[in-house]
Amino acid sequence: MKKRTLIISLVIAAILAGALVINANLAGIVASRQQQNDALIEESMAYHIGTLAYLYAYPIVDMTQQMHNETHRVSDDQQVYAPVNRLHRFPEIVGPDTGGNLRAPNNDTLYYSGWFDISEEPLIIHTPDTQGRYYTIAVTNLYSEVEHIGRRTTGTKQQYFGLTGPNWKGRLPDDVTRISVESEQGWLLGRMLVEGPEDYEAAMALVNDIWLASLSEFTPGQRPAMPPKIKAPATDVINNLEFFSTFHAQLEKLPPRPDEAALMAQFEAIGLSRSQSFDPTTLSEAARRGLERAVVAGKKLVEAATQRTIPDYNGWMISKKIGRYGFDYMHRASVARGGYGNLPEESLYPAMLFDADGELLEGGQVYQLHFAADEMPPVNGFWSLSAYRLTDQQLEENEFQRYSIGDRTKGLRYNTDGSLTLTLQHEKPDDTEANWLPVPAGNYLLVMRLYEPAAAVLEDEYLLPRLQRIEQ
User: Fold this and answer.
1) 14: part of which helix (H) or strand (E)?
2) Which residues form the DUF1254 domain (predicted)?
3) Dihedral angle over CA of 381, 384, 389, 393, nearest 10
4) Which residues are CB-contacts of 256 (< 8 A; sequence separation ≥ 6)?
5) Which residues pair with 177 in a beta bridge?
6) Residues 6+ apart with CB under 8 A from 63
7) Residues 258-306 pLDDT 10s
8) Would you tell me the crossing angle of helices 285-307 and 329-338 to the nearest 10 degrees?
9) pTM of the prediction?
10) Could you tell me the domains of the chain?
């Protein structure tokens, strides 16, 4: 009996021991599966939310990168440089290889630009009396949204303007017009009308009389000295995880937007929070993989958004949301990558990539743009047409040295009925150069600029004519 009991006890002990082994193995399997699930969730969240964050933050990071690279001496041959809260004045009418970091620059105006930081105090902007000459300064915040100083909005008399940040509570000097800016940092891009090389000196004299001063160094009529140059390595954060570090650093300073609280909560789920630090070196392997994938996907998404065709009017793609984007983050990012821009009422940029047959515009083809006598572009300013290489959105050298054509082009030949026909091709036409716009040899982007467009343009009552391909 005792022997039987002992045997039963040994069997039971063996069974229990096996169960313990099974349970231990099962626990290990469960734990391993849990780790896999956690890694899957972490990588997927970082990838999907990170892609959205890339799209949202693109103009913020792009501007921050440009600000560093243009306010520091990052190379001996850089074209654009000025310290923070100072202006760089482009020394010539923009042509091939002189546009600096500008994307699809115009040939109608002299450019001047600067990056501001009003986190400590306001920035005062002095503008001279241009005596009716067109000029504008686009005050662009880090969200790529715009306000304008200039002929259309503030007139052309000598004035002082004060940019103030979201947290500044002080008082500006008398006769200084306040302009509130949502972000503490941002970009100033100015344009001054120039009527060709013969008008250069007069236009540049006015540009040189536009200057900036922080409030503490401001004295009416006295331009402050230029600070010493600061050298630093160039930054490139658009293509790597530093993109998110740069975004996070700016996110800490940008005031929350009430309508974006839910979106910000999603960003917080992957560590992009105003209330916590963000360091790519401390990321888990899963989170790192997800965010690295997000950078690749986000970049492709922005590029695709830039290249897509939006609804067109007679073949012309026209966006009337530039400078005011609401929740359209994709459009905002695509405009930033394409070069930013003015509000529609300041200037419109109808653009064309394809001809009427759906083929990319190409310099070997001959195109004509015909305006009936009573259908010239209705503008309160002026209009022009330019062509850019599709590869880099820059002007291409031509023997005629003409990089735009428009209502101010000297020597234009109108038809006997008052209409106007412009010819677009790479090679010089046999008959006349008067109405010829030289275009790049390969594929190109065509951009019409309508400065101070009339209401008929803004309300789609006026449409630009179709571009016609001429059989050779």
Assistant:
1) helix 2-71
2) 84-211
3) 0
4) 264, 274
5) 161
6) 140, 142, 144, 185, 186, 187, 336
7) 899 999 999 999 999 988 889 999 999 999 999 999 999 999 999 999 8
8) 70
9) 0.88
10) 88-217 (2.60.40.1610), 312-470 (2.60.120.600)
